[in-house]
Amino acid sequence: MMSAGLALFFLAGGRRRQKPSTIARLNRLYGVSLDADARSETPVKRLALAALLIPYRASPTRLKRALIHGIHTDAVAYERLPAEALAGLRFWTSAGIPAFLVVASRFSPVALALAPAMAVAGFSVPGLVVARGEGRFHDSIRQQLPQVADVLYALVLGGKNLDQAFSGAAEATGGPVGFLLMSAVREMELGAARQEAFTRVLERYPIAELASLLRSLIEAERRGHGLTETLEVFSREIRVRRRDQLRIEVARAPLKMLAPLVFLILPASIILTVGPTFLATLGKIF
Description:
Layout: H1 2-13, H2 22-29, H3 35-40, H4 43-58, H5 61-68, H6 74-78, H7 83-104, H8 109-123, H9 125-157, H10 162-173, H11 175-189, H12 194-204, H13 208-223, H14 227-285
Helix pairs in contact: 1-4, 4-7, 7-8, 9-10, 9-14, 10-11, 11-12, 12-13, 13-14
């Protein structure tokens, strides 16, 4: 127990001195720093993180590849979720849940039969976490696109070319859109053509609104159309589309509230109103 405690302590305290991970190098390349978050972590969070990192770091190379498969994404990097910790979570959920079920049931046949299914379900838990993070990441991009279009419009109207406008928008906007714009700017600085950099961004982020912005800019530059007019039209259209999406979500709200109303609120109201009278009647009868 003492050795395990010391191991957890040194893993938690020596995290800053370790070799930077792939996600940390990706964050540094894209201009995102993790040092502030590392300093703000509490000892409990460090111990929990160390408990998640132990099985990944102790695993052989092939098992590491299987555990971290599908976790290295830009959304994970931006959300500051260590991919190695999610891989360790995959190990604990896929191995720990079935083991706990089998041991708690004292090796019953039902638990042994359910153990493989529980292992598969536990293996998919980090994938659900990553998918949820990617969903939030894409929603944030959609919400920031009108602001990005306005910043690009102001920069182009001020005399900047498209590359300078994208670099300025990435620095001024921040957030997920600034994150992906900065990645495109970095690729262009390394010698990639603008269309190739935009194509790679669209391959990583298959968002219709983002694709509409980048493709319209490429097409306007190719045909010699004014970039300011293109950005002005896009900003107006993206706001109208966002407003329509909000109206659709508001229209769906009553349908979403129907199930809790029928199965939770209505039965509780019936029990509270009719229940005392029913119990009093039963007491008089019997």
